[in-house]
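Aim 2 progress update. The chain analyzed this quarter is reproduced below.
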Amino acid sequence: MMGSANASGANTVEPLNLGFSNFDLDGLTPVEGGGATTALGFKAAGIHAGFRADPDRLDFALIVADEPASTAAVFTTNVFCAPPVQVSRQHLDGVSYGTARAIAINSGIANAATGDVGLRNAERTTHIVGDAVGCPAEEVLVASTGVIGQHLSMEPFETGVPLAVAALSRDGSSSAARAIMTTDTHPKEFAVTFSGDGIGYDGCTFAVGGLSKGSGMIMPNMATMICVITTDAPVNPDVLHHALVYAVGHSFNKITVDSDTSTNDSCFVMSSGAAAGPHARPIELGTPAYDRFEQALAAVCGSLARTMAADGEGATRLLTVRVAGAASDADADAAARTVANSPLVKTAVYGHDANWGRIAAALGRSGATFDPLRVSIDIMGLPVCRKGLTVPFDEEEALRRFERPEIDLDVDLGAGDFKTLIWSCDFSHEYVTINGDYRT
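Predicted C-alpha coordinates:
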Protein backbone atom coordinates (compact mmCIF):
# COMPACT_ATOMS: atom_id res chain seq x y z
CA MET A 1 0.00 0.00 0.00
CA MET A 2 1.17 3.52 -0.64
CA GLY A 3 0.87 4.35 3.02
CA SER A 4 2.20 4.19 6.53
CA ALA A 5 3.70 1.12 8.12
CA ASN A 6 2.00 -1.35 10.36
CA ALA A 7 3.47 -1.96 13.76
CA SER A 8 5.08 -5.30 13.02
CA GLY A 9 8.83 -5.70 13.32
CA ALA A 10 9.71 -4.89 9.74
CA ASN A 11 13.34 -5.86 10.19
CA THR A 12 12.72 -9.28 11.73
CA VAL A 13 9.85 -10.80 9.71
CA GLU A 14 10.56 -13.77 7.50
CA PRO A 15 9.84 -14.08 3.76
CA LEU A 16 6.73 -15.94 2.65
CA ASN A 17 7.19 -19.22 0.82
CA LEU A 18 4.12 -20.04 -1.27
CA GLY A 19 5.71 -22.49 -3.66
CA PHE A 20 5.78 -21.96 -7.36
CA SER A 21 2.47 -23.25 -8.69
CA ASN A 22 0.96 -21.65 -11.79
CA PHE A 23 4.38 -20.88 -13.32
CA ASP A 24 6.29 -22.66 -16.05
CA LEU A 25 9.56 -23.58 -14.35
CA ASP A 26 10.64 -26.13 -16.95
CA GLY A 27 14.31 -25.39 -17.61
CA LEU A 28 14.50 -22.88 -14.74
CA THR A 29 16.12 -23.38 -11.33
CA PRO A 30 14.71 -21.42 -8.36
CA VAL A 31 17.47 -19.88 -6.26
CA GLU A 32 17.20 -20.39 -2.51
CA GLY A 33 17.27 -16.93 -0.90
CA GLY A 34 17.54 -15.32 -4.33
CA GLY A 35 16.62 -11.73 -5.05
CA ALA A 36 17.67 -8.59 -6.88
CA THR A 37 21.40 -9.22 -6.42
CA THR A 38 21.43 -12.83 -7.59
CA ALA A 39 22.32 -11.60 -11.07
CA LEU A 40 25.94 -10.60 -11.63
CA GLY A 41 26.70 -6.91 -11.93
CA PHE A 42 24.40 -5.54 -9.22
CA LYS A 43 24.62 -4.48 -5.58
CA ALA A 44 21.91 -3.29 -3.20
CA ALA A 45 21.40 -1.86 0.26
CA GLY A 46 18.58 -1.03 2.63
CA ILE A 47 19.09 1.48 5.46
CA HIS A 48 17.23 3.75 7.84
CA ALA A 49 17.60 7.23 6.32
CA GLY A 50 15.01 9.06 8.41
CA PHE A 51 11.84 9.01 6.32
CA ARG A 52 10.23 7.13 9.19
CA ALA A 53 10.36 8.07 12.85
CA ASP A 54 11.32 4.58 14.04
CA PRO A 55 15.14 4.38 13.91
CA ASP A 56 14.96 0.60 13.77
CA ARG A 57 12.84 0.61 10.62
CA LEU A 58 14.61 0.48 7.27
CA ASP A 59 13.17 3.11 4.93
CA PHE A 60 15.51 3.64 1.98
CA ALA A 61 16.63 1.12 -0.66
CA LEU A 62 19.29 1.54 -3.33
CA ILE A 63 19.98 -0.87 -6.20
CA VAL A 64 23.04 -0.07 -8.31
CA ALA A 65 24.51 -1.63 -11.45
CA ASP A 66 28.28 -1.87 -11.70
CA GLU A 67 28.04 -0.27 -15.16
CA PRO A 68 25.23 1.54 -17.02
CA ALA A 69 22.61 -1.13 -17.69
CA SER A 70 19.83 -1.67 -20.19
CA THR A 71 16.66 -0.77 -18.32
CA ALA A 72 12.93 -0.93 -18.91
CA ALA A 73 9.91 -0.13 -16.78
CA VAL A 74 6.15 -0.33 -16.59
CA PHE A 75 4.36 2.36 -14.59
CA THR A 76 0.93 3.02 -13.10
CA THR A 77 -1.92 3.89 -15.44
CA ASN A 78 -3.41 6.14 -12.73
CA VAL A 79 -3.83 9.66 -14.16
CA PHE A 80 -2.82 11.04 -10.74
CA CYS A 81 0.64 9.51 -11.15
CA ALA A 82 3.27 10.66 -8.69
CA PRO A 83 6.34 12.80 -9.48
CA PRO A 84 8.76 9.85 -9.08
CA VAL A 85 6.86 8.07 -11.85
CA GLN A 86 7.01 11.13 -14.07
CA VAL A 87 10.74 11.66 -13.49
CA SER A 88 11.65 8.00 -13.99
CA ARG A 89 9.63 7.83 -17.19
CA GLN A 90 11.41 10.95 -18.44
CA HIS A 91 14.83 9.50 -17.57
CA LEU A 92 13.91 6.46 -19.66
CA ASP A 93 13.61 8.68 -22.72
CA GLY A 94 9.86 9.06 -22.29
CA VAL A 95 9.28 5.55 -23.69
CA SER A 96 9.93 3.58 -20.49
CA TYR A 97 13.17 2.01 -21.68
CA GLY A 98 16.75 3.18 -21.99
CA THR A 99 19.87 3.05 -19.81
CA ALA A 100 20.19 3.46 -16.04
CA ARG A 101 22.73 2.91 -13.30
CA ALA A 102 20.76 3.21 -10.05
CA ILE A 103 17.26 2.91 -8.62
CA ALA A 104 16.48 4.72 -5.35
CA ILE A 105 13.33 3.95 -3.36
CA ASN A 106 12.09 5.57 -0.17
CA SER A 107 9.20 4.34 1.96
CA GLY A 108 7.00 6.30 4.34
CA ILE A 109 6.10 9.15 1.99
CA ALA A 110 4.75 8.62 -1.53
CA ASN A 111 5.61 12.07 -2.91
CA ALA A 112 2.25 11.93 -4.71
CA ALA A 113 -0.21 14.80 -5.17
CA THR A 114 2.68 17.16 -4.44
CA GLY A 115 2.73 19.27 -7.62
CA ASP A 116 5.80 21.15 -8.81
CA VAL A 117 7.46 20.85 -5.40
CA GLY A 118 7.21 17.07 -5.67
CA LEU A 119 8.70 17.11 -9.15
CA ARG A 120 11.61 19.24 -8.00
CA ASN A 121 12.18 16.92 -5.03
CA ALA A 122 12.16 13.83 -7.25
CA GLU A 123 14.64 15.45 -9.63
CA ARG A 124 16.80 16.60 -6.73
CA THR A 125 16.88 13.02 -5.48
CA THR A 126 18.35 11.84 -8.80
CA HIS A 127 21.16 14.40 -8.49
CA ILE A 128 21.95 13.39 -4.90
CA VAL A 129 22.08 9.71 -5.84
CA GLY A 130 24.00 10.36 -9.05
CA ASP A 131 26.68 12.34 -7.20
CA ALA A 132 27.07 9.59 -4.60
CA VAL A 133 27.11 6.71 -7.08
CA GLY A 134 29.25 8.54 -9.64
CA CYS A 135 26.85 8.69 -12.57
CA PRO A 136 24.74 11.34 -14.33
CA ALA A 137 21.40 12.17 -12.69
CA GLU A 138 19.72 10.99 -15.89
CA GLU A 139 20.92 7.46 -15.10
CA VAL A 140 19.09 7.45 -11.76
CA LEU A 141 15.48 6.24 -11.43
CA VAL A 142 13.36 6.94 -8.36
CA ALA A 143 10.31 5.48 -6.67
CA SER A 144 8.47 6.39 -3.47
CA THR A 145 5.89 4.59 -1.38
CA GLY A 146 3.98 5.87 1.64
CA VAL A 147 1.35 8.43 2.54
CA ILE A 148 -0.04 10.46 -0.36
CA GLY A 149 -0.11 14.26 -0.21
CA GLN A 150 2.96 14.83 1.96
CA HIS A 151 6.16 16.50 0.77
CA LEU A 152 9.47 14.69 0.93
CA SER A 153 12.23 16.16 3.05
CA MET A 154 15.58 16.23 1.25
CA GLU A 155 17.57 15.82 4.46
CA PRO A 156 17.14 12.03 4.66
CA PHE A 157 18.46 11.79 1.10
CA GLU A 158 21.39 14.11 1.79
CA THR A 159 22.52 12.09 4.80
CA GLY A 160 21.17 8.67 3.89
CA VAL A 161 22.29 8.20 0.29
CA PRO A 162 26.04 8.23 1.11
CA LEU A 163 25.35 5.68 3.87
CA ALA A 164 23.44 3.48 1.43
CA VAL A 165 26.24 3.68 -1.16
CA ALA A 166 28.75 2.66 1.51
CA ALA A 167 26.52 -0.29 2.45
CA LEU A 168 26.04 -1.60 -1.13
CA SER A 169 26.81 -5.31 -1.42
CA ARG A 170 26.00 -8.46 -3.35
CA ASP A 171 24.09 -9.57 -0.24
CA GLY A 172 22.02 -6.38 -0.01
CA SER A 173 18.81 -7.50 -1.72
CA SER A 174 17.20 -8.66 1.53
CA SER A 175 17.73 -5.37 3.34
CA ALA A 176 16.52 -3.45 0.28
CA ALA A 177 13.36 -5.60 0.16
CA ARG A 178 12.65 -4.78 3.81
CA ALA A 179 13.34 -1.08 3.35
CA ILE A 180 10.52 -0.63 0.80
CA MET A 181 7.82 -2.33 2.90
CA THR A 182 4.81 -0.31 4.02
CA THR A 183 1.87 -2.36 5.32
CA ASP A 184 3.57 -5.50 4.01
CA THR A 185 4.12 -8.13 6.67
CA HIS A 186 6.84 -9.94 4.71
CA PRO A 187 9.66 -8.97 2.36
CA LYS A 188 9.19 -10.31 -1.15
CA GLU A 189 12.08 -11.71 -3.20
CA PHE A 190 12.52 -14.43 -5.81
CA ALA A 191 15.12 -15.50 -8.38
CA VAL A 192 15.74 -18.21 -10.96
CA THR A 193 18.65 -19.24 -13.15
CA PHE A 194 18.70 -20.89 -16.57
CA SER A 195 21.36 -22.37 -18.80
CA GLY A 196 22.44 -20.80 -22.07
CA ASP A 197 23.34 -24.23 -23.46
CA GLY A 198 21.51 -25.02 -26.66
CA ILE A 199 20.02 -21.54 -27.02
CA GLY A 200 23.07 -19.77 -28.39
CA TYR A 201 25.00 -19.06 -25.18
CA ASP A 202 26.73 -22.35 -24.41
CA GLY A 203 28.62 -22.34 -21.13
CA CYS A 204 26.68 -19.41 -19.67
CA THR A 205 24.27 -19.51 -16.75
CA PHE A 206 21.92 -16.55 -16.53
CA ALA A 207 20.00 -15.25 -13.51
CA VAL A 208 16.78 -13.27 -13.21
CA GLY A 209 15.81 -12.07 -9.73
CA GLY A 210 13.86 -9.35 -8.04
CA LEU A 211 12.28 -7.77 -5.01
CA SER A 212 8.91 -6.09 -4.59
CA LYS A 213 6.48 -4.57 -2.13
CA GLY A 214 2.71 -4.48 -2.13
CA SER A 215 -0.04 -5.34 0.31
CA GLY A 216 -3.01 -3.03 -0.16
CA MET A 217 -4.45 -0.57 -2.67
CA ILE A 218 -3.79 -3.34 -5.17
CA MET A 219 -5.65 -3.65 -8.45
CA PRO A 220 -4.42 -3.72 -12.02
CA ASN A 221 -3.30 -2.04 -14.01
CA MET A 222 -0.04 -2.51 -12.18
CA ALA A 223 -1.33 -2.94 -8.64
CA THR A 224 0.08 -0.90 -5.75
CA MET A 225 3.60 -2.01 -5.99
CA ILE A 226 7.24 -1.20 -6.37
CA CYS A 227 9.34 -3.89 -8.02
CA VAL A 228 12.98 -4.08 -9.13
CA ILE A 229 14.17 -7.01 -11.23
CA THR A 230 17.72 -7.60 -12.44
CA THR A 231 19.28 -9.99 -14.91
CA ASP A 232 22.80 -10.71 -16.09
CA ALA A 233 21.56 -11.91 -19.48
CA PRO A 234 22.47 -9.54 -22.36
CA VAL A 235 19.22 -7.83 -23.38
CA ASN A 236 18.84 -4.47 -25.12
CA PRO A 237 16.40 -1.92 -23.64
CA ASP A 238 13.64 -2.27 -26.25
CA VAL A 239 13.65 -6.07 -26.06
CA LEU A 240 13.75 -5.85 -22.28
CA HIS A 241 10.64 -3.67 -22.34
CA HIS A 242 8.85 -6.09 -24.67
CA ALA A 243 9.51 -8.96 -22.25
CA LEU A 244 8.53 -6.90 -19.20
CA VAL A 245 5.19 -5.84 -20.67
CA TYR A 246 4.39 -9.51 -21.31
CA ALA A 247 5.51 -10.59 -17.83
CA VAL A 248 3.59 -7.82 -16.04
CA GLY A 249 0.46 -8.62 -18.04
CA HIS A 250 0.57 -12.21 -16.79
CA SER A 251 1.49 -11.47 -13.19
CA PHE A 252 1.12 -8.07 -11.51
CA ASN A 253 -1.84 -7.22 -13.72
CA LYS A 254 -3.50 -10.44 -12.58
CA ILE A 255 -3.67 -9.61 -8.87
CA THR A 256 -6.13 -7.61 -6.83
CA VAL A 257 -6.58 -7.05 -3.12
CA ASP A 258 -9.14 -4.27 -2.93
CA SER A 259 -9.75 -2.98 -6.51
CA ASP A 260 -7.79 0.24 -5.89
CA THR A 261 -4.97 1.34 -8.19
CA SER A 262 -2.18 3.46 -6.79
CA THR A 263 -0.43 6.62 -7.95
CA ASN A 264 3.12 5.25 -7.60
CA ASP A 265 3.19 1.80 -9.19
CA SER A 266 6.56 1.11 -10.80
CA CYS A 267 8.18 -2.09 -12.06
CA PHE A 268 11.78 -1.86 -13.25
CA VAL A 269 14.05 -4.42 -14.89
CA MET A 270 17.79 -3.90 -15.45
CA SER A 271 20.15 -6.00 -17.58
CA SER A 272 23.90 -6.04 -16.95
CA GLY A 273 24.80 -8.73 -19.48
CA ALA A 274 27.61 -9.65 -17.08
CA ALA A 275 27.11 -13.43 -17.27
CA ALA A 276 27.86 -13.48 -20.99
CA GLY A 277 30.79 -11.07 -21.06
CA PRO A 278 31.16 -7.58 -22.52
CA HIS A 279 31.17 -8.64 -26.17
CA ALA A 280 28.25 -11.06 -26.16
CA ARG A 281 25.55 -10.48 -28.73
CA PRO A 282 22.26 -9.32 -27.20
CA ILE A 283 19.28 -11.65 -26.98
CA GLU A 284 16.89 -10.96 -29.84
CA LEU A 285 13.15 -11.37 -30.21
CA GLY A 286 12.00 -14.59 -31.82
CA THR A 287 14.98 -16.66 -30.66
CA PRO A 288 15.09 -19.62 -28.26
CA ALA A 289 17.17 -17.48 -25.90
CA TYR A 290 14.46 -14.82 -25.82
CA ASP A 291 11.76 -17.40 -25.16
CA ARG A 292 13.70 -18.76 -22.18
CA PHE A 293 14.46 -15.29 -20.84
CA GLU A 294 10.81 -14.24 -21.16
CA GLN A 295 9.81 -17.43 -19.33
CA ALA A 296 12.27 -16.65 -16.50
CA LEU A 297 11.11 -13.05 -16.20
CA ALA A 298 7.45 -14.14 -16.13
CA ALA A 299 8.23 -16.73 -13.44
CA VAL A 300 9.91 -14.12 -11.23
CA CYS A 301 7.07 -11.64 -11.70
CA GLY A 302 4.50 -14.36 -11.13
CA SER A 303 6.05 -15.53 -7.89
CA LEU A 304 6.30 -11.97 -6.56
CA ALA A 305 2.71 -11.25 -7.62
CA ARG A 306 1.34 -14.31 -5.82
CA THR A 307 3.23 -13.35 -2.70
CA MET A 308 1.81 -9.83 -2.85
CA ALA A 309 -1.74 -11.15 -3.15
CA ALA A 310 -1.19 -13.54 -0.25
CA ASP A 311 0.17 -10.67 1.85
CA GLY A 312 -2.88 -8.50 1.20
CA GLU A 313 -3.77 -6.30 4.14
CA GLY A 314 -5.39 -8.42 6.83
CA ALA A 315 -5.46 -11.47 4.55
CA THR A 316 -5.62 -14.99 5.96
CA ARG A 317 -5.86 -16.86 2.64
CA LEU A 318 -4.52 -16.51 -0.90
CA LEU A 319 -7.46 -16.67 -3.29
CA THR A 320 -6.99 -17.97 -6.84
CA VAL A 321 -9.92 -17.45 -9.22
CA ARG A 322 -9.81 -19.38 -12.49
CA VAL A 323 -12.30 -18.79 -15.25
CA ALA A 324 -12.51 -21.04 -18.30
CA GLY A 325 -15.03 -21.42 -21.10
CA ALA A 326 -15.29 -17.69 -21.78
CA ALA A 327 -16.31 -16.25 -25.13
CA SER A 328 -13.28 -13.91 -25.25
CA ASP A 329 -10.18 -12.87 -23.35
CA ALA A 330 -12.02 -9.77 -22.19
CA ASP A 331 -14.94 -11.82 -20.88
CA ALA A 332 -12.63 -14.21 -19.04
CA ASP A 333 -10.81 -11.32 -17.38
CA ALA A 334 -14.01 -9.47 -16.49
CA ALA A 335 -15.58 -12.55 -14.93
CA ALA A 336 -12.50 -13.54 -12.92
CA ARG A 337 -11.78 -10.00 -11.79
CA THR A 338 -15.36 -9.37 -10.63
CA VAL A 339 -15.37 -12.54 -8.55
CA ALA A 340 -11.93 -11.77 -7.10
CA ASN A 341 -12.97 -8.23 -6.17
CA SER A 342 -16.35 -9.11 -4.71
CA PRO A 343 -16.46 -8.19 -1.01
CA LEU A 344 -19.14 -10.83 -0.52
CA VAL A 345 -16.96 -13.56 -2.07
CA LYS A 346 -13.89 -12.42 -0.14
CA THR A 347 -15.70 -12.32 3.19
CA ALA A 348 -17.25 -15.72 2.51
CA VAL A 349 -13.75 -17.12 2.03
CA TYR A 350 -12.68 -15.51 5.30
CA GLY A 351 -15.72 -17.02 7.03
CA HIS A 352 -15.09 -20.48 5.49
CA ASP A 353 -18.49 -20.36 3.80
CA ALA A 354 -18.78 -22.29 0.52
CA ASN A 355 -21.47 -19.88 -0.69
CA TRP A 356 -21.37 -20.37 -4.45
CA GLY A 357 -24.36 -18.05 -4.91
CA ARG A 358 -22.06 -15.08 -4.25
CA ILE A 359 -19.75 -16.28 -7.02
CA ALA A 360 -22.69 -16.67 -9.40
CA ALA A 361 -23.97 -13.19 -8.54
CA ALA A 362 -20.54 -11.69 -9.25
CA LEU A 363 -20.36 -13.48 -12.58
CA GLY A 364 -23.78 -12.18 -13.50
CA ARG A 365 -22.78 -8.55 -13.06
CA SER A 366 -19.32 -8.88 -14.61
CA GLY A 367 -20.45 -7.98 -18.12
CA ALA A 368 -19.23 -11.30 -19.54
CA THR A 369 -21.53 -12.99 -22.04
CA PHE A 370 -22.72 -16.47 -21.06
CA ASP A 371 -25.79 -18.65 -20.52
CA PRO A 372 -26.35 -19.21 -16.77
CA LEU A 373 -27.66 -22.68 -17.51
CA ARG A 374 -24.22 -23.70 -18.81
CA VAL A 375 -22.16 -22.49 -15.84
CA SER A 376 -20.18 -24.79 -13.56
CA ILE A 377 -18.52 -23.73 -10.29
CA ASP A 378 -16.08 -25.62 -8.07
CA ILE A 379 -14.82 -24.44 -4.67
CA MET A 380 -11.48 -26.03 -3.68
CA GLY A 381 -12.18 -28.89 -6.07
CA LEU A 382 -15.68 -29.50 -4.74
CA PRO A 383 -18.43 -29.29 -7.39
CA VAL A 384 -21.05 -26.89 -6.02
CA CYS A 385 -22.85 -25.81 -9.19
CA ARG A 386 -23.55 -27.55 -12.49
CA LYS A 387 -25.61 -26.14 -15.36
CA GLY A 388 -26.40 -23.14 -13.19
CA LEU A 389 -27.98 -25.26 -10.45
CA THR A 390 -26.83 -26.33 -6.99
CA VAL A 391 -24.99 -29.61 -6.48
CA PRO A 392 -25.15 -31.23 -3.04
CA PHE A 393 -21.74 -31.27 -1.35
CA ASP A 394 -20.26 -32.21 2.00
CA GLU A 395 -20.18 -29.04 4.15
CA GLU A 396 -17.79 -30.66 6.64
CA GLU A 397 -15.38 -31.52 3.85
CA ALA A 398 -15.62 -27.93 2.60
CA LEU A 399 -14.71 -26.64 6.06
CA ARG A 400 -11.68 -28.92 6.12
CA ARG A 401 -10.52 -27.64 2.73
CA PHE A 402 -10.92 -24.04 3.88
CA GLU A 403 -7.98 -24.66 6.20
CA ARG A 404 -5.68 -24.64 3.18
CA PRO A 405 -3.44 -21.55 2.75
CA GLU A 406 -4.68 -21.14 -0.84
CA ILE A 407 -8.36 -21.25 -1.79
CA ASP A 408 -9.20 -22.08 -5.41
CA LEU A 409 -12.42 -21.01 -7.09
CA ASP A 410 -12.92 -22.54 -10.55
CA VAL A 411 -15.59 -21.39 -12.98
CA ASP A 412 -16.50 -22.69 -16.44
CA LEU A 413 -18.83 -20.30 -18.27
CA GLY A 414 -19.54 -22.80 -21.06
CA ALA A 415 -19.41 -20.03 -23.65
CA GLY A 416 -16.10 -20.52 -25.48
CA ASP A 417 -12.44 -21.47 -25.23
CA PHE A 418 -10.85 -18.50 -23.42
CA LYS A 419 -9.55 -18.66 -19.88
CA THR A 420 -7.58 -16.69 -17.28
CA LEU A 421 -6.79 -16.51 -13.58
CA ILE A 422 -6.67 -13.74 -10.99
CA TRP A 423 -4.88 -13.88 -7.62
CA SER A 424 -6.53 -12.15 -4.70
CA CYS A 425 -7.12 -12.73 -0.98
CA ASP A 426 -9.90 -12.82 1.57
CA PHE A 427 -11.23 -9.80 3.50
CA SER A 428 -10.89 -9.96 7.27
CA HIS A 429 -11.70 -7.57 10.11
CA GLU A 430 -8.02 -6.60 10.08
CA TYR A 431 -8.32 -5.03 6.61
CA VAL A 432 -10.73 -2.45 8.00
CA THR A 433 -8.53 -1.90 11.05
CA ILE A 434 -5.39 -1.31 8.96
CA ASN A 435 -7.06 1.12 6.58
CA GLY A 436 -9.20 2.83 9.19
CA ASP A 437 -6.07 3.62 11.21
CA TYR A 438 -3.89 4.17 8.15
CA ARG A 439 -2.44 7.60 8.90
CA THR A 440 -2.40 7.16 12.66
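The chain has eleven helices and 15 strands. The chain has two domains: 29-310, 318-436. These observations will guide the mutagenesis experiments scheduled for the next reporting period.
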